Structures are given as C-alpha cells and as structure tokens.
Amino acid sequence: MYPFALTTTEARSPHARWHKLPLESVRLTGGFWASRQDINRRVTIPHGLEMLERVGTLDNFRIAAGLKDGEYRGKMVFLDSDVYKWLEAVAYELQANPDPALQQQADEVIDLVAAAQQPDGYLNTYYQLKEPDARWTDLDFGHELYCAGHLFEAAVAYARATGTKKLLEVATRFADLLVDVFGSGKNQGTSGHEEVELALVKLYRATGNAAYLDLAKTFIDRRGKGVMRGLGWMKAEYHQDRVPVREQDRVEGHAVRAMYLNAGVADLYLETGEEALLQSLERQWQDMTRGKLFLTGGLGSRYEGEGFGDPYELPSDQCYCETCAAIGSVFWNWRMLQITGEARFADLIERALYNGVLSGVSLDGSEFFYMNPLLSRGGYARKPWYTVACCPPNLMRLFASLPQYFVSYDRGGLQVHLYGSGTVHLPQDGGQGIALSMQSDYPWDGRVTLTVDQANGSVWELRLRKPGWCERFTVRVNDEPVEAPRLDAGYIVLERAWQPGDEVALEFGIEPYFVEAHPRVDAVRDSVAIQYGPVVYCIEAVDHPDVNLLDIRIDPSAELRATRRGDVVSENVIVIEATAQVEDPSAWDGALYRRVGNHSTRLTPVPLTAIPYYAWANRGANAMRVWIPIAR
pTM for this structure? Predict the structure, then answer.
C-alpha cells in the first residue's frame, strides 16, 4: 500500500501531505527551465561573486576577521545576507553538479565567514565594525536576525550538498547564542524583517536540536503587539506586528516580510500541526489572491514601504512588485502545497516563476530588476547590481534549487507540479526504486510525455497538475485514451502497477487569450492583457517605433496569432501578433480635459507584437505595457 519510504529530512515533517524530494533526485535536462538554470550556473552565480568583491561585501568579512584594515563598506546594514544567499545558491549547484573549482571558491568564502565570527558566536559585520556596542538594540530595522536566518539556510544547504560542516558549525554556534539571548524569559524581541523563523526550522530539521524549533515558535508568538516602529504611511503592520499571527486576517505591510513570515509560519505548522496557524495562512492567502495579486504574480502595490495596499489597489505604473516578494510567494505557496495537496498553490508558483520572478533577471543573466512594474514610460532599466542587492542572489538560489519544485512524493506515489524536460529518480532501500523521465517544450507547447524508466512492481498514484489556465486537456496511457480521468484538487490522478516503458501523454490546450481584471481594479478597468498558457505578455516601444504605446487600443475579439520567432528578443520564444488600433490624439487640440460629447475618434489599424513580460527591457530602456485599453 505504501511503496515509497520517506527519506528526506523534510519528509519527516509530520503534518505534510506531500514531501520534497532530495534535490539530486530531480534533474532538468532540457527546455525552458534547464536553459535558465544553465545561465544561472555559467553567468549569474559567477557574476554574483564578482559583484560581492567589487562592492566590498566580502571585504567586510576580511576586516571583521582582522585580515584586512579598513572600514565597513556599503550603505546598508544587511549586506552579509547577500553573501549567505550566494553560498546557498552554490550549495544547490554543487549538490546537482559537483564542481571542484566552484566548491573551492565557496570554501574560501566560508573560511572568511568563520574567521569573522566572534568568540561567543555572534556574527554581523555591520555591527562588529560600525556599532559594536549596539547589538540587538534595533530589532525593527537592524536586520541582525534576518542576516542570521540567511546564514542558517546557507549552512544547511552547504552541509547537505558537500558533507562539509564548517559553515554549519558557524551557524549552530550563532543559533545557540540566539537561544541564550532570546529564549523564553529573556530578551522579548523579535525580528523586524522576518526570515530567521523559517531558517530556524530548517536548522532544527538538519540537526534535530528542538531548541531551534522552540525559538522559531517563540519569535512567531511574539509578533502582533503593535510595538514595532512603522515606515511612512504604515505603522506596526509594516512588520506584520498589528495583530498576533494566529489572528491575522489579511496580508499586509512590507510584501517580502509578509511572504517570509508566512513561509516560516507554514513550516511551524508542518512540525506542530497547530490548526490556528493554518487557518491564519488560509485567510491571508484568500485576501492576497482575491484583491492584492498582480497578473504577473507580483506583490506590493506601493513604493512607500514596498508594501501591500488596499484590496484591488493594483496600479500598473506605480506598483512595486519587488522580485524578492515574488520569490517569497514561491516559498510560501510551496509549503502550502505540501500541507494541502491543492493545485491552486502550484498554479500560483507557476504564475510567479514565469512572470514576476523571471522578469527580475535579464535574458543573459547579468542584469536585474528590483521592482517589476507592469507599465513603463521608458526610463526604467536593468542594473548589474543594487545598493540593496537582495534580489540578485535570491534569484540565484531559487534557480539553482528549482528542480525541487517540479515533483513531490508521499507514501502512495509521485506528484508532478511543473512541466518541462527532466528526470526523476526515487531510490528505495533494498529495492530498485522508481525513475521517470519527462519531455516537453512547455510553456510553448502543451504536450507533455512521461515515461516510466524504472519501477518496483507496486501499485502507486501518479498525480499530474492540470494548470489553472487550461480549459481542455487529453490523457493517454500507452497510447490508450483515458476517458474522464479522475480529478482531485486540480490534479489528474492515474493509479496502476506501473511497469518500465509505460508512457503517459498529456496534452494541454494552449493558445493565446485575453485576460480582464475584476472591475474594482480601477487602474486597468476597460483594459485587457494577453496570456499564452502561464506566460503573461507585454508590448514594448522597440517593436512599435512609430507609435506611443499610450495611444494603442485593442478589440478583445481580435485574432491573436502565436508565432515562434527568434528575431524579436534574444531567444527563441513564442511571440503574439494581432491587429490593434492607434487612437489619434490630435482631435484633443492640446486640451487635457473636455466635455463629453459628439467628438470623433479616429482609430488607425496597426500591427501589434507582444513578447513575454519576463523578456522586456532586454533591448535597452524603452516604454512597455501589459494592460491595453479596449478600443472604443
């Protein structure tokens, strides 16, 4: 009845329905995401190390360790976290693709980190170099616990990837200090920027030290007293400190903080099963997806506070949509998927990955976006690094670990959440285990073929997500149609005694289509966007050189034509072509406003070329828009 043993640390979380496979058990071998992983490996991760040297972040560790003279470099207090995220990305790469040269670079960075750690376990180069007497005095904005969390995540990943425990020893010494300082009955503070909560749970799973899980719970329990200093128009809600976590009824405040906190709360639920935690997360998820989520999966409506606004407050040009918020959404939704087994969470992971996350890095992997607007008048360009450089290494670690989001398992079978080309191998103690291969040109083509390469003779379920955007699909097993396949929570369920050579052929009906927003989303009322499968599209000025994009209108009954072209952006993608109209503004005669009346509006047909939103701003800074007004 239970052909699969639970083998990973996360698999032993008692309240997970589905479990993460070891990273080395899933490989992307071709297609869309394998290409992005390759660019991340060859370009983005080396670029990250170069920038950490250039801006002085690594020098801060050298100075703190007494290996170099100088003062703290950089304007921000949280620069240590960029080093830790880079190390975490390297760990995932080494786990999947051992590389002695890359490991040596990482080991040298780890030596710097270890050398900078103080005798009592404390480690934060800003406070060690700039304010040595100010430890733990500004938990709201000081980011000490935030940096510690990223250290813990990197340490766990690196130990698993290489077997080397040096960074893990640094992390546990620091975590032990946190237990001593912030444990029950001691310093009653908690982190203004959440991250340490989920990291402590990871450290608990890796070490078995229950004190780390207890501290994660303690930090979560201390939120909601309304005492943290706000920022701008937001008060304590900026830090998710307005109400206790279990009473939280809406997603609010700084978007990245909210996502990281909810990921940590979900981890706590996975270990404890406390129902009030899950109920709070469900309320917030509903609030987010019903009124605070951009079409791209982006989060954060306002520049001030980088935070959520009111329901339906989703402006295209002044939205924030920080890359890290979309990444945080992936983290949170992955945990909700593990808890519930419901496809709605995988749908949101897919939406964020193809749009709000991927837009954060250039096609060549060397430049980045911090914010991801849905309308630009032409002045917004990618940069090789930022003063606040949280997003680039966050992208590095997500892309390096991406295979873990494609497939999960439980005692009864495998679940496929994302599609592409790759292999899955689940070894079994005392048996030959299970192996699958998947071939697909998804998201450009809706055909997916899965082949059983190895089986153990037992009966088990194969669950295949039916994408939320998909209105029609077919399933064949060994070339025989599956009539009325069983659907459960958005997954196609196939159960049988699988044999080597068995083949499942899926075909999702994929075509371009128009999308409209809820009428309360005032910013894009009477406008439409274009989507192809999970990919959101935009139009750029470079493809419409004689047109002001603000004048373009489109009839939502217009034919949309999907064409594979390699001459529009610098990779072979599906481009959507249509006929739009340009509204002649000359009839306004220079007026900004006029009385509504019998004014003639001249519309001129114009060819429209739409590209994937993630690919915009790769041909220089130029105007762009996702939402197109409907032709009157």
Answer: 0.97
